[in-house]
Amino acid sequence: MIGEGYMKDEPRARDRLIGARIRAIRKEYTTLSLEAASTMAQWAPAKLSRTERGLRRITDQEVATLITSWQLPAKERDRLLEELQIGASSGWWDRPIPGVPHEVGALASYEADANELVSVAITLVPGLLQTYKTAVAALTADGVQAQDMETNWMARLHRQQILTRVDYTAFISETALRTPYGGPDALREQLEHLLAAQDRGVEVRIIPAHQTRVTTLHPFHLMRFANTAPVVHVEMAAGGFYIHDKEVRPYEVVLQRLDQVAFSQSDTRTLLQRQVKGFDHVAQIEQVCGRQPVRGGSA
User: Fold this and answer.
1) Pick from 78, 165, 195, 256: CA 20 to 30 A from residue 207's CA?
2) Which strands make up the sheet holding 203-207, listed edge to edge?
């Protein structure tokens, strides 16, 4: 994928958390300006600025270099380094998985540190809510090779485990819920899976198919954190990219507007149940007719 190489240098959620902590350390324990702090560490001011905002990857050694050059007391320095080590616990995403784009792991690392996730899906149910059949069909349509299918599904399944620990809302276009990735049986199973997700506390909201009040050009995934600014992951054909800082605001506005346009949880549930019943009705007709198409009039 084109986006895979690009994602290798993308900051992780951990980098944003560490960056915010470094800025707090500089403000709390020193009187150094950004320029002075950069000079003491023999860094360019732009590099420190990007580090504090979480816009670049940072190593533990760089953290140690910064707080040592700022002449923090040894006891305080060791305590802070220990804090950062505890917060840097790795997960499955830190180990490359053959056949799985690096960006999947990067996204999972953000999700692992988030306390709220919000997805907007246009043509396909979000990966965090996909069943196996939907995922395989979607991955196939995306050009994933057969030999890499199971590892990609396992990575997606690992990501879904975060749903037991975060607040999650999915705004899903009605169009996505009528597009049979994997066939009619797979779609029915997917709809039932969404109903079960609602039972588990996931907020699923359907966006009316023909609404014209909010324009959503691309699917996106907003992640909110306890101690740092939110991040948006935008999906594109060549791979995803991340939106940070003030550029996140337009996406938050879109979510506010979608909240007014989308069906409520209750109405969404009714629509999903009605669609499932529609599959039941078709199945009954096919059973009576021997799965032959029903024709009107005489032959």
Assistant:
1) 165
2) 203-207, 167-173, 116-121, 220-224, 231-234, 241-243
